[in-house]
Write a structure and sequence with these properties.
The protein is α/β, with parallel strands linked by helices. It has 2 domains: about 10-170, 3-Layer(aba) Sandwich (Leucine Aminopeptidase, subunit E, domain 1); about 195-510, Aminopeptidase, CATH 3.40.630. The chain has helices at about 35-45, 50-55, 90-110, 130-145, 175-195, 205-215, 225-235, 235-240, 295-310, 355-365, 385-390, 400-415, 445-460, 470, 495-510, and strands at about 10, 20-30, 30-35, 65-70, 75-85, 115-120, 160-165, 220-225, 250-255, 260-270, 270-275, 315-325, 335-340, 345, 375-380, 395-400, 415-420, 435-440, 465. The strands form 3 sheets. Strands 8, 9, 10, 11, 12, 15, 16, 17 and 19 form a 9-stranded mixed beta sheet that branches. Strands 1, 2, 3, 4, 5, 6 and 7 form a 7-stranded mixed beta sheet that branches. The two termini are about 30 Å apart.
Length: about 500
């Protein structure tokens, strides 16, 4: 929609004559195996002894590990990728993740070299046929992503991916392909927004792209609260953080009316760039703060998927968009800021800006939009990366009714969350001598006290905060944890599929 178009995705029972072909293999009882159908096809392409070749080459068959045979005729490349040891894949997450990793490994071998690819898809686990097929298609599309709008000569050559599927377990192929395409589009949208440089994705640009959805999707409207209106409304958090930047902040509100369930609200931190403000960050690594809008990007992508698929829900997405810059008019440590709900907040560190803009958006979702549930994504704290590295996002939950469904959605999509404590005792860290509350506690438990600060503005509305700082900005060592279907040097779009899957199941159970 914005910069990057996904390759064409399709499923067919008939193989063609592609530039490249991919096959999945697996380990069982310590040995490499392929299905009988794949064995016959592979033998015709690369010879009967292909498994011996792998063994002699030192191929281990780890999850996602690839091996490439080169040929002088189509397919010019034959890629094998392993699911890993299938006997050790116990839960739904491990099984689906091995499928996504194998497919992603295959695609990654050809994305910059071949125009089309066929992957022979078979499921050794007996997963629900349609679910496994959907996730294989999604992984194929996600692995092909490259952000190249700002390059003179794009490197991505792959234009189409076809899964060759001869099974009978999935009866709704057309619906599966349509849903997979939508999810890939949604994640591409989120990746584009989150990974674009701040001079190409200012709050003004975010507004522009959000408004595009109004004309693209049914039952969607967009309202924008600009800087002057935000000041009149008393949105002190949003105004304070963004007032030092040349491009002023705004609150972008998207609404989708697809049914009576809800209204639900998803809020995403949309810091188009975060210098730290007066509490300026060290220069090393500051360029990665282009990704500090990953929460808003995830909210936008999830909203797109929900609306495009026509889920029967009433959904809002709120994107408080700002740039945190040092300037003569910037907010300062020690300032007292009055927030949208009237709370007086003592500012401790201007680099803790995300919670300020989010607090106003959360209060607006509660007070004005009457949201029944609020879920919020943000690259909020470095503390969560210290706790969970770049593997899990931190889940802070005050929505008991939705927790089971959210964790179940995480098992399906592979966007893993780890439940963190939310006890009231942590409020003590936010006690202020000068205002109602401080916006930063002490060093210890920083991700927890940040979550508790946000909860203050949700009041009694069921609220979930997911700190995606590690999973949405997997750089500076986090790259080693990335699965093969997530390219490096981008924000992966973490959370898009998670919230879509949550609403798909959770809202259906409420209907």
């Amino acid at each position: 929609m914005i910069f990057t178009r996904p390759p064409i995705l399709e499923v067919s029972s008939q193989p063609g004559a592609p530039e490249a072909a991919g096959f999945m293999l697996f380990k069982k009882e310590g040995k490499l195996h392929v299905s009988e159908k794949s064995r016959e096809k592979l033998a015709g392409l690369v010879g009967e002894g292909f498994l011996d070749v792998l063994e002699k080459a030192g191929y281990k068959g780890e999850t996602g590990e690839t091996f490439v045979f080169h040929r002088s005729e189509k397919p010019y490349k034959v890629i094998l990728a392993s699911l890993g040891d299938v006997d050790k894949k116990k839960g739904l997450y491990e099984k689906l993740e091995s499928v996504r990793s194998a497919i992603g490994g295959i695609v990654s071998q050809v994305v910059e070299k071949n125009e089309d690819l066929e992957v022979y898809y078979e499921d050794p686990y007996g997963i629900d046929g349609c679910l496994g097929l959907r996730e294989a298609l999604v992984a194929a599309g996600l692995a092909a992503y490259r952000l190249e709008a700002f390059k003179t000569e794009p490197k991505r050559k792959l234009t189409s991916i076809k899964l060759v599927y001869t099974g009978s377990e999935c009866s709704g192929l057309e619906d599966v392909v349509g849903e997979a395409k939508t999810l890939v589009e949604a994640v591409y949208l989120a990746r584009d927004v989150a990974s674009a440089p701040s001079n190409k994705m200012t709050p003004e640009h975010v507004e522009k792209y959000a408004k595009q959805l109004e004309g693209m999707l049914d039952n969607v409207t967009v309202r924008v609260i600009g800087f002057e209106e935000a000041k009149k409304l008393g949105m002190g958090g949003l105004v304070s953080v963004g007032q030092g930047a040349e491009v002023k902040p705004r609150l972008i509100i998207l609404e989708y009316k697809g049914g009576d369930a809800g209204p639900y609200a998803i809020v995403g931190k949309t810091l188009c760039f975060d210098s730290g403000g007066i509490s300026i960050k060290p220069s090393h690594g500051m360029e990665t703060m282009r990704h500090d809008k990953a929460g808003g990007a995830a909210a936008l992508g999830a909203f797109y998927a929900v609306a495009k698929m026509g889920l029967p829900v009433h959904l809002y997405a709120l994107l408080p968009a700002a740039m945190n810059m040092p300037d003569g008019g910037a907010y300062k440590p020690g300032d007292i800021v009055e927030m949208y709900d009237g709370t007086k907040v003592e500012v401790i560190n201007t680099d803790a800006e995300g919670r300020m803009v989010l607090a106003d958006a959360i209060a607006y979702a509660r007070k004005d939009l009457k949201a029944k549930e609020i879920l919020e994504y943000s690259t909020l704290t470095g503390s969560i990366v210290v706790a969970l590295a770049h593997v899990y996002a931190g889940l802070f939950n005050w929505n008991e009714g939705g927790e089971k469904d959210l964790l179940a959605a995480s098992e399906v999509t592979g966007e893993r969350v780890w439940k963190m404590p939310t006890d009231d005792i942590y409020k003590k860290a936010l006690k202020s001598e000068y205002a109602d509350i401080k916006h930063v506690g002490d060093r210890w438990g920083g991700s927890i006290t940040a979550a508790v600060f946000l909860k203050h503005f949700a009041k009694d509305t069921p609220f979930t905060h997911i700190d995606i700082a590690g999973t949405a900005i997997p750089m500076g060592g986090g790259e080693k944890y990335l699965p093969p279907y997530v390219p490096k040097a981008i924000s992966p779009g973490f959370g898009v599929r998670l919230y879509y899957e949550y609403l798909k199941k959770h809202a259906a159970s409420k209907a």
